[in-house]
């Protein structure tokens, strides 16, 4: 059974000018121990999906319909009070900016101890010992001496290591990592990604890795979900989506990334830009930018259709299925 | 070699004084503290080509960008544009007209209170290239068309445009003084990949059509690979390796270049694991003695800890590394 099941999730923001549909029918699942990558450009709804799952949608945003199930239990209907024990214990979170995630007034040791004691029965001494163990695990040098240090005494990369320790220390089953390496330099990014991969594998933690960097996903994720304008464009095994993208948007996205190994004269470009939430075209949201568009795309919205090993929300594959 | 050099930097340095205020410093008997943002770098850019500088935060690449257009004056060494020292460029509007800059953040680099037409026309007016308003408007219209916008967009304000469109406006403004040389400081790092592809394609098209010369600053090695003819890798204010881009990507000699290349997540990396190099970039206020990279370098020995490596020519590439010089890099 899947650890996390998101079924037909719709998130809406009521505004004075009408209701904005920021997520529209997103369905995905994550198996125990699996790393699901979620990619898309700014405003595609990737972070919102993560926020909806941990129940941290900014008001006035709300889950309008659909379900979020963790271990078969609905969590989207829970109140904030009921969600609190789940956060940290069942679902951990890692955000982009380590400086705003950590409390600047508490030492990192205190933050770790507090998190663990909230969710687990631990004596002060045990919690302290575990905190040191976690800091060692995430590669903080001289962990025992630095446990009393404050966040500002660490560099960006070291802070992100502390954040990872914080997210994992109560041993959650699922970690939502929202752009965990975007604020970091490439050499530090490589260290953090390797660390995250190793720790989640050791603890059998599932990860939902949200990023705009396809390279990070390619290297880390088992499966990948591509989002566009609040909808899923394609979902499938990472090798398949990267090498043989089915959805024209995914194909364009892959072609627009400059590669280190093969140099091309011109990058493939998708003209135009993602529509605003107030002006999502009818039918397929990608149809005005799509070079394979036909009549049906402009009127009917495609659901996820199987194409090889992946599923793509594209009418091209309906024809394929019908023609056999 | 009859290479047509547009920009030449010769042992250029730029130091910043980061000492505490004079009174506090005197009371505490502290010496002056200098941050060596750029420490004796040399490079040249040939006409119609692109030289890229890459490196991580704090390596001094943006300082080089500013030095190259004369926004900073060098603390040491000199920069020559078409043979003329640009420290004196303030006095020479014609020299300044021929170089321009595209900045990283398209939200901060356009005046929100100006209409796009005025933003793009600013260099034309400043250098008095055209006098009548009709001529200026026609030129602005042509420039906007050239970067893929419509002449009618000139009436709008910057906030009406997306990030990619704003960067097109920045490019139109940079081109309006008909420069030969453009310094691009991370022009696409604030943009999404599909928009980045549009801007990179546009920049390449313009380079071919107008014969532009680029100094391209970026932290993204894949983008640099796509754009550059020559590549310089910077670390803590120095160029550690510089040469033809293809050669450096195929056969990196400096351990830091190798580290950077290994660290980039690439689409072809599906399922592959890699070994990241540990450590972080040290502070440029107190750089390590000897080779600044030695605390992170897998090949460092006693010599690296004490002696600063000089830039040496190896085939087509110039490298500042004792290990490369001694042939210890072939592992």
What can you see in these coordinates?
The complex is a heterodimer of chains A (324) and B (331). Chain A is an alpha/beta fold. Chain A contains 13 helices and twelve strands. An eight-stranded mixed beta sheet of chain A has the order 6-7-8-3-9-10-12-11, sandwiched between helices. In chain A, strands 2-1-4-5 form a four-stranded antiparallel beta sheet, with helices on one face. In chain A, helix 4 packs across helix 5 and helix 7 (156-168) runs parallel beside helix 8. The longest helix of chain A is centred in the middle third of the chain and has 18 residues, at 186-203. The radius of gyration of chain A is 21 Å and the shape is globular. Chain A starts with a strand and ends with a helix. The two termini of chain B are 34 Å apart. In chain B, strand 11 (312-314) and strand 12 (317-319) form a beta hairpin. Chain B has helices at residues 22-27, 61-68, 93-97, 116-126, 133-146, 163-175, 193-210, 221-227, 245-250, 255-263, 302-306, 322-326, and strands spanning 5-17, 34-46, 50-54, 76-81, 84-85, 99-102, 181-185, 213-218, 230-235, 238-244, 312-314, 317-319. Chains A and B meet through helix 8, helix 9, helix 10 and helix 11 of A and helix 7, helix 8 and helix 10 of B.
Annotation keywords:
heterodimer, A: 324 residues, alpha/beta, eight-stranded mixed beta sheet, four-stranded antiparallel beta sheet, globular, B: 331 residues, 12 helices, 32% helix
Q: N-to-C terminal Cα separation of chain B, in Å? A: 34 Å
Q: What order do the SSEs of chain A take from the amino end to the carboxyl end, as H and E?
A: EEEHEEHEHHHHHEHEHEEHHHEEH
Q: Helical segment tally of chain B?
A: 12
Total number of helices of chain A: 13
Radius of gyration of chain A from CA coordinates: 21 Å
Write the element-wise H/E pattern of chain B from the N-terminal end onward: EHEEHEEHEHHHEHEHEEHHHEEH
